[in-house]
Amino acid sequence: MNYSWGHDRRYNSYPEYFKKHFGERVQKISVDAGFTCPNRDGTLAFGGCTYCNNDAFNPSYCRPDKSVTQQIQEGIEFHAKRYRRANKFLVYFQAYSNTYAPLESLKKLYSEALAYPGIIGLVIGTRPDCIDHEKLGYFQELSQKHYIIIEYGIESCFNSTLEAINRQHTFEQSAEAIKQSAEAGIKTGAHIIFGLPGETKEQMLSEAEILSTLPITNIKFHQLQIVKGTPIEKDFGKNPEKFTLFELDEYLDFIVKFVERLNPGFIIERFTGEMPPRFLTGQNWGLIRNDQVNRLIEKKLEDLNAWQGRKYFPVYD
Ligand code: SF4
Asked: What predicted TM-score, i.e. pTM, was given to this entire model?
């Protein structure tokens, strides 16, 4: 059976989407362009979000003292040695807030990336308060010729949670940034964390309905992991009862329920985050990889005869 997303996998999966649209595998290449973020440089705060640890997810070739071109070149070589070859690439500006600079600097940086052979587009991770009409106008222009997606860190739909993790922006700001980007014809990504302090499972599940009303293109989920040395480690030590550190089985049950309530138009890019256990404190899932968890989720969807959007009922105003 083919679902509304055009294939028989039980969720609207990211690799299938790319195969369908580009006819082949597309590899993401991470680049660290040396940005900071207003939650770290003192504009909003100095401490950053309590869980933030950008070093934990930066590949080794990715260093801001190298040019964008050099990082792309080394990134392509790095991936070619380890994974199946790809001929098309997206440059992923992931570390910190990648729209937090004057427009002219962004133009210089992003045109350098797009000029590299084989680069078909950009994935730009940022905060919802680091975008404005001028920047959206620029990305709108780029979107005419390239695959451009702005990935917003929403993290939670609840302002009390955003306050508890020191995000220094509200959910309403996230919703507005996503709407304005979509209105400008730019693809939008959303990043959500499950297990943040003060949220019950029921509240987390209700986020499926809230998010489903937004014009999101791609969505990524992450179970909360407590990275050693981050402020959240201390918060967790003081009040562990406020957190939900999911056991793997518990997460599989949860995510299947969540996906059933989720807008079937959203492309699911990832269900989980993975990090070597040596970086983590509190219970974790050991060395299991994301693709293994994906298979368990697909198996669970199959066993329950469930699929993305089975319990999604759009609300029309
Ligand atoms: S907005 Fe991003 S980069 Fe800035 S502190 Fe939060 S998680 Fe870290």
From this structure: 0.95
Nearest protein CA to atom 3 of ligand 1, as residue: 96
State the closest ligand 1 atom to the C-alpha of 37, by its place in the atom list counted from 1: 4
Please report the atom of ligand 1 found closest to the CA of residue 167: 6
Amino acid at 46: F
317 — pLDDT class (breaks 50, 70, 90)? low
Determine the pLDDT at residue 53: 84
> pLDDT above 90 covers what percent of the chain?
84
Answer whether 227 contacts ligand 1 (Cβ < 6 A): no
Q: Which two tokens stand for residue 115?
A: 């000029």
